[in-house]
């Protein structure tokens, strides 16, 4: 199999097959050369501390979403978090197996929560998932996510999912690019009735406290 078979037709007619390939195929979730190591915020919760839900309506961690994932996330060492959730009936794709998009949602949530340790509000720009093994309903999925680099507003995260305990069978892994945003991102773009509800009762949105942002 040639490079052309693996990667499709050359993106550019003048692409030189003899040129170094590493830079050419570096994807958007790969930290660039100038990326720096992420810094855990001095006031980040201690390793082992439960982070709790950031918003009661969140599909990933919200307590008010019966069909949600109900992820329970804890701070880990460095710039990392761990989490777990039980695969429910409502999470099926094929009979008795989790829907792949929901496993990606779990990765999105757990990598999003890494922002709590950096204390930078950030949203997902790109999310990639490798599905390695089927995940049955009724099982506990153990997740781990960590930051591998920062370049300006861009944060590069990795995550993995395991069955049979935190060190068990690796069933999926993910990579993501998160982009740091200001509070205005949420206030401007969210449906106004939901935004207003949070601004009137900030207790409903724990991130407002976790990120020291005042509406
Ligand atoms: C009402 C009160 C609310 C209070 C909220 C307070 C705090 C909340 C904080 C955090 C939330 C906490 C936890 C949430 C936990 C879990 C949820 C999971 C996370 C999500 O589920 S979140 C939803 C899905 N997410 C989106 O809804 C994003 C939609 N999107 C956009 O809103 C824009 O797209 C944005 C902001 C991403 C960028 O827009 P922008 O204008 O700010 O910046 P720009 O475009 O210049 O990008 C800057 C640099 O990122 C590169 N870049 C961007 N996107 C890229 C891509 N896809 N691939 C490769 N590179 C990319 C550019 O290439 C450039 O790179 P360079 O600087 O090198 O040129």
From TrEMBL:
Keyword match Cell membrane: yes
Residue ranges with Basic and acidic residues bias: 1-18, 31-43
InterPro entries in the record: HotDog_dom_sf (IPR029069), THEM4/THEM5_acyl-CoA_thioest (IPR052365), Thioestr_dom (IPR006683)
Record region (Disordered): 1-49
Catalyzed chemical reaction(s): dodecanoyl-CoA + H2O = dodecanoate + CoA + H(+); (5Z,8Z,11Z,14Z)-eicosatetraenoyl-CoA + H2O = (5Z,8Z,11Z,14Z)-eicosatetraenoate + CoA + H(+); octanoyl-CoA + H2O = octanoate + CoA + H(+); tetradecanoyl-CoA + H2O = tetradecanoate + CoA + H(+)
Annotated Thioesterase domain residues: 96-164
A molecular function (GO) term: hydrolase activity
Compartments where found: Cell projection, Ruffle membrane; Cytoplasm; Membrane
Main location: membrane
Membrane topology classification: Peripheral membrane protein
Its EC number(s): 3.1.2.2
GO BP term, pick one: fatty acid metabolic process
Record keywords: Apoptosis, Cell membrane, Cell projection, Cytoplasm, Fatty acid metabolism, Hydrolase, Lipid metabolism, Membrane, Transit peptide
GO cellular component: cytoplasm; membrane
Similarity comment text for this entry: Belongs to the THEM4/THEM5 thioesterase family.
Protein name: Acyl-coenzyme A thioesterase THEM4
Taxonomic classification: Bacteria, Bacillati, Actinomycetota, Actinomycetes, Catenulisporales
């Amino acid at each position: 199999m040639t490079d052309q078979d693996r990667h499709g037709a050359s993106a550019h007619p003048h692409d030189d097959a003899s040129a170094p390939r590493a830079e050419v195929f570096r994807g958007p979730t790969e930290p660039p050369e100038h990326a720096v190591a992420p810094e855990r915020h001095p006031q980040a919760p201690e390793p082992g501390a439960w982070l709790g839900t950031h918003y009661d309506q969140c599909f990933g961690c919200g307590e008010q979403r019966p069909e949600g994932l109900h992820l329970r996330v804890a701070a880990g060492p460095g710039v990392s978090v761990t989490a777990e959730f039980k695969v429910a009936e409502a999470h099926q794709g094929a009979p008795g197996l989790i829907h792949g998009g929901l496993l990606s949602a779990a990765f999105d949530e757990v990598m999003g929560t890494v922002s709590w340790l950096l204390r930078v509000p950030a949203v997902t720009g790109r999310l990639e998932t490798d599905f390695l093994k089927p995940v049955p309903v009724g099982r506990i999925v153990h997740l781990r996510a960590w930051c591998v680099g920062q370049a300006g507003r861009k944060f590069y995260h990795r995550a993995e999912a395991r069955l049979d305990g935190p060190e068990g069978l690796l069933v999926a892994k993910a990579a993501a690019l998160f982009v740091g945003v200001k509070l205005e991102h949420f206030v401007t773009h969210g449906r106004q009735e939901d935004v207003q509800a949070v601004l009137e009762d900030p207790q409903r949105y724990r991130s407002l406290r976790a990120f020291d942002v005042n509406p």
